[in-house]
């Protein structure tokens, strides 16, 4: 298996936020999606970073002073993020993808123009490895 696209969840099936969303919009999107981290995209579709529940919690404390009305006044790109999930390209070797996924719960995938095309979840890689390692004989 050398093609990482086998593991790709396409953009159309991903939950994400835009870099011009407010803190409140991001909170609502994260709640609806049920994920602890979401990719941040520009309106042009470029991957901009990763927003986590922890990032939002600290933003509420530091930017919004626990006031939801103020959460509408701040854009998510104002939030200090602990770390961004580093994207890969479709040509990334499988070894590098697995290494990246071991440190991130999802790996963003971008094309040659840095446009976000989807994610690869750690779970999909583990399920594939499980099927390969524990095949019934």
Layout of helices and strands:
Blueprint (H helix, E strand, L loop, with lengths): L8 E2 L6 E2 L4 H11 L3 E5 L5 E6 H10 L5 H4 L16 E2 L4 H10 L2 E5 L5 E6 H12 L4
Parallel strand pairs: 2-3, 5-6
Antiparallel strand pairs: 1-7, 3-4, 6-7
Helix pairs in contact: 1-2
Into how many domains do the coordinates divide? Answer: 1
Mean pLDDT: 90
Poorly predicted runs are none
Number of strand elements: 7
The CA-CA distance between the termini, in Å, is 20 Å
* CATH fold-level topology: CBS-domain
Structure class: alpha/beta
Radius of gyration: 16 Å
- Into which percentage range does the β-strand content fall? 15-25%
Which CATH C-level class is it?
Answer: Alpha Beta
Largest sheet: 4 strands, mixed
Quick rundown:
The chain is α/β, with parallel strands linked by helices and 137 residues long. It has helices at 23-33, 53-62, 68-71, 94-103, 122-133; strands spanning 9-10, 17-18, 37-41, 47-52, 88-89, 106-110, 116-121.
What attributes does this structure have?
137 residues, CBS-domain, 5 helices, elongated
Report what the structure shows.
There is one protein chain. 34% of the residues lie in helices and 20% in strands. It is α/β, with parallel strands linked by helices and 137 residues long. It has one domain: CBS-domain, CATH 3.10.580.10. It has helices at 23-33, 53-62, 68-71, 94-103, 122-133; strands spanning 9-10, 17-18, 37-41, 47-52, 88-89, 106-110, 116-121. It has a four-stranded mixed sheet. A three-stranded mixed sheet has the order 2-3-4. It is elongated and about 55 Å long.
């Amino acid at each position: 298996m050398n093609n990482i696209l086998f593991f790709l969840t396409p953009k159309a099936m991903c939950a994400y936020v835009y870099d011009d969303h407010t803190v409140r919009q991001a909170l609502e999107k994260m709640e609806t999606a049920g994920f602890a981290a979401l990719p941040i995209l520009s309106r042009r579709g470029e991957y901009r970073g990763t927003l986590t529940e922890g990032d939002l919690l600290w933003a509420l404390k530091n930017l919004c002073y626990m006031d939801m009305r103020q959460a509408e006044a701040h854009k998510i790109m104002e939030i200090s993020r602990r770390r961004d999930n580093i994207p890969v390209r479709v040509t990334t070797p499988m070894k590098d993808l697995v290494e990246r996924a071991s440190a991130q719960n999802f790996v963003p995938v971008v094309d040659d123009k840095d446009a976000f095309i989807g994610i690869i979840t750690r779970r999909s890689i583990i399920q594939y490895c499980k099927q390969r390692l524990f095949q019934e004989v």
